[in-house]
Design brief:
The complex is a heterodimer of chains A (about 170) and B (about 550). Chain A is an alpha+beta fold and about 170 residues long. Chain A is about 30% helix and about 40% strand. The chains are: A alpha+beta (about 170), B alpha/beta (about 550).
Chain lengths: ~170, ~550
């Protein structure tokens, strides 16, 4: 069992996300994270899904996803050279005084940006792979995280290779 | 300028639709108005579920796409069981539903239901048409998707304002369908085919396990030639009955939970299993770990997702069953030495024939045997679900594909009677018989109204045991004979038939079975035969749930 990152190219149509998500829940596949948005082709969207399972399960996930008429291409990026990124916004308690300075130092080390400064809070924006965001989240917990939101992972193959419609 | 409804009817005609099974209602009024004087025949059923089953039966009997039509909300929802039945058995059906006007969508309007959302898990694809200009394309795509690749049902939801709105005349209709997300593989990979042939050449105990995919791809002749050329015995699934003649020397009959002993023993002992158009369903495999435990497995199927889903496969071949069997035949050079295996199988067949207590009592197996003797494989036999289905599968000798119509995957009681109606319109030249139980028949008994109205010569053979027989059998065997809510009070089915103006005979004696069947078949119109059979007869052999398929109960030995 390990997380697999799937890049799914779909028709940009009403209901496509619900077809994909419905099939996952119906067949008992667990989605760890899901991100969807437009892509380089005007009529297509790209869904990045992180799914947990052994190789047999992931093979079924890919085949069943591929069967959906609105799905154009499914690729498993896990074993391939790829860049994977996630973005998080973290609202952390930061009373004026010592903790605020510490938080700013930590943010600096993680290359996180301060995108909002309030009287008692800071909102940090951080991008990176899942481990990096997990690590930052863990460090900030001691100061009190008031709210946190993550985008879900997005990924692309490195170099000239692409996940495109082969048809 | 023409309306969306007119465009729809013309698009259906272009797809060659000659019959629609349906039920009118508010938001489909514009479509029904166009049907009124169109060349398409519309059969008015008595419940929308029957429309879906009739379209399915039409598709199974003909190999063409079956079409049903219902209004929004309750009408559409009533189609769902029929659509799910077609989906589980990969049957090409196009279901048309009306929908509330687009302005009211999502508004909880009168008779609104999100039927595309509801049917997403039980359709191959579905559409909500939001622009009348899309109707031509959507109809063309829907029929293409329904009948190609692994077939399946497609639903098209059409809001009322789309039916009434004007479509510009002269819009060009594409000649072929091109869907970048849907490109089925038809030809098997040559390297995989050669790997399979290597296994066949080396196998000493090969077995073919053939299913509904053979029927769907029209590959019966190829399967027959392949098994005879390679001298490999064949067992079929419930859905595969009729793909090879039941009385062929290489045919072992059905396998699985109610399979024959010889078929189940052969699966357990074979060293090569060639799975053709099947999906290793749990009713076939029993305990999957002990299914064909000694065999290398070749799996031929058009749906790549079926390969490796339930059982590990050594040689997967993705492709149309017919094309792959042709390639296997073309490239076959050597067959294995299977003489000992043939002898072993023949001794099983001789030692373990199917059988029942053939005394003076009226037993359901006897009724099916007599039906088989009268029809001689030259009719279409439809079944309901339960004991009636299994007895028909075991005791009727099917000789041709598309002469056996049954709900395999979903196991839908009430399927048979409306499916038989559909089968009649697909093959008006063939006698059509629905073998029913008293429970199943009462699930869609209202369709007596339909067969009466159109004088549809469907014959209903009721194996009436006043029980929900299969459930009662499980209660007898596994629940200490506690018959919890499975007993049905007696019903005079002939009187009910008569009330619709339909003839019928009640039969209680064994020696009147044959003449009753002959009388029913000789009648011009519909006919109901109510056979009062032994009440607590069981379907045997039987593999208990979770057991290996060679661990059968109720077995007989000669």
């Amino acid at each position: 069992m390990k997380p697999h990152t799937l890049s799914v190219l779909v028709e940009n149509r009403a209901g496509v996300l619900s077809r994909v998500a419905g099939m996952f829940s119906r067949r008992g596949f667990n989605i760890e994270s899901l991100a969807v948005g437009t892509c380089e082709e005007p009529n297509m969207s790209r869904i990045t899904i992180v799914v947990n399972g052994d190789d047999g399960v992931v093979e079924q996930v890919m085949k069943q996803t591929n069967k959906l008429i609105d799905v154009i291409k499914v690729s498993d990026l896990t074993e391939r050279e790829s860049v994977e990124r996630e973005l998080a916004l973290i609202k952390v308690t930061a009373e004026p005084g010592t903790s605020r300075a510490e938080i700013l130092q930590i943010a600096d080390i993680f290359r996180a940006q301060v995108v909002d400064v309030g009287a008692k809070t800071l909102v940090l924006q951080v991008a990176g792979d899942t481990d990096k965001i997990d690590a930052l989240e863990k460090l900030l917990r001691q100061y009190g995280i008031k709210e946190l939101v993550r985008t879900g992972k997005i990924a692309l193959l490195r170099g000239v290779k692409t996940v495109k419609s082969s048809k | 300028m023409k309306t969306g409804a007119r465009t729809l009817i013309e698009a259906l005609q272009r797809e060659g639709v000659d019959t629609i099974f349906g039920y009118p209602g508010g938001v489909v009024l514009p479509i029904y108005d166009e049907l009124y004087d169109s060349s398409i025949r519309h059969i008015l059923v008595r419940h929308e579920q029957a429309a879906a089953h009739a379209a399915d039966g039409y598709a199974r009997a003909s190999g063409r796409v079956g079409v049903c039509l219902a209004t929004s909300g309750p009408g559409a929802c009533n189609l769902v069981t029929g659509i799910a039945t077609a989906y589980m058995d990969s049957i090409p059906v196009v279901a048309l539903t009306g929908q509330v006007p687009t302005a009211l969508l999502g508004n909880d309007a009168f008779q609104e239901s999100d039927i595309t959302g509801i049917t997403m898990p039980v359709t191959k694809h579905n559409y909500l048409v939001k622009d009348a200009a899309e109707i031509d394309r959507v109809i063309q795509e829907a029929f293409y998707i329904a009948r190609t690749g692994r077939p399946g049902p497609v639903l098209i939801d059409i809001p009322k304002d789309i039916s009434t709105s004007e479509v510009k005349a002269g819009t060009t209709i594409p000649e072929t369908v091109s869907l970048r997300g849907y490109q089925p593989t038809y030809e098997g990979h040559v390297r995989q085919i050669d790997k399979a042939l290597d296994l066949i050449a080396g196998a000493q105990r090969p077995l073919i396990y053939a299913g509904g995919g053979v029927v769907l791809s029209g590959a019966s002749a190829e399967l027959l030639e392949f098994m005879e050329t390679a001298a490999i015995p064949v067992t079929t699934t419930l859905m595969g009955l009729g793909t090879v003649p039941g009385d062929h020397p290489l045919c072992l009959g059905m396998l699985g939970m109610h399979g024959t002993q010889s078929a189940n023993y052969a699966v357990t002992e074979c060293d090569l299993l060639i799975a053709v158009g099947v999906r290793f369903d749990d009713r076939v495999t029993g305990k999957i770990e002990t299914f064909a435990p000694n065999a290398a497995v070749v799996h031929i199927d058009i749906d790549p997702a079926e390969i490796g889903k339930n059982k590990k496969v050594d040689v997967p071949i993705v492709g149309d069953v017919r094309a792959v069997l042709q390639a296997l035949l073309r490239r076959m050079q050597k067959r294995g030495d299977t003489a000992n295996w043939a002898a072993r199988i023949n001794s099983w067949k001789a030692q373990y024939p199917l059988g029942y207590c053939d005394d003076g009592h009226l037993r359901p197996q006897y009724v099916v045997e007599q039906l088989s003797g009268v029809l001689k494989g030259e009719g279409i036999v439809v079944s309901e679900v339960g004991q009636n289905q299994m007895w028909t599968a075991l005791y009727y000798c099917f000789k041709k594909p598309r002469t056996w119509i049954t709900s395999g995957g979903l196991g839908t009681m009430g399927y048979g009677f409306p499916a038989a109606i559909g089968a009649h319109f697909a093959r008006p030249d063939m006698p059509v018989v629905d073998v029913a139980g008293d429970g199943s028949f009462q699930m869609n008994i209202q369709e007596l109204g339909t067969v009466a109205q159109y004088n549809i010569p469907v014959k209903v053979v009721i194996l009436n045991n006043m029980y929900l027989g299969m459930v009662r059998q499980w209660q007898e065997l596994f629940y200490d004979r506690r018959y919890s809510y499975t007993e049905l009070p007696p019903v005079d089915f002939v009187k009910i038939a008569n009330a619709y103006g339909i003839e019928g005979i009640t039969v209680e004696e064994k020696d009147r079975v044959r003449e009753a069947i002959e009388a029913a078949l000789a009648a011009d119109g519909p006919f109901v035969l109510d056979f009062r059979v032994e009440r607590e007869e069981n379907v045997f052999p039987m593999v208990p749930a979770g057991a290996a398929i060679n661990e059968m109960i109720g077995v007989r030995q000669k």
